[in-house]
Amino acid sequence: MMRRLGLCLFGLALCLVAALPGPNAQAAPPADWAAWLKEFRAKAAAKGISAATLDAALAGLEPVQSILERDRKQAEFTLTFPQYSDRVVTEAKIQRGREMAVKHADLLAQVSAKYGVQSRFILAIWGIESFYGKYTGKDPVIASLATLSYDRRRSSFFQKQLIAALRMADKGYIELETMKGSWAGAMGQSQFIPTSYLAYAVDEDGDGRRDIWNSTPDVFGSIANYLAKHGWKPDHTWGRAVQVPQSLRNGWSSIAADKTKSKPRSLSAWNTQGVRKAGGGALPGRDLQTILVAPDGAKGVMFATYPNYKRILNYNPSHLYALAVSLLSDQIESRQ
Question: In sequence order, what DSSP letters do the residues of 202-221 get, joined into one string?
Answer without folding.
Answer: --TT-SSS--TTT-HHHHHH
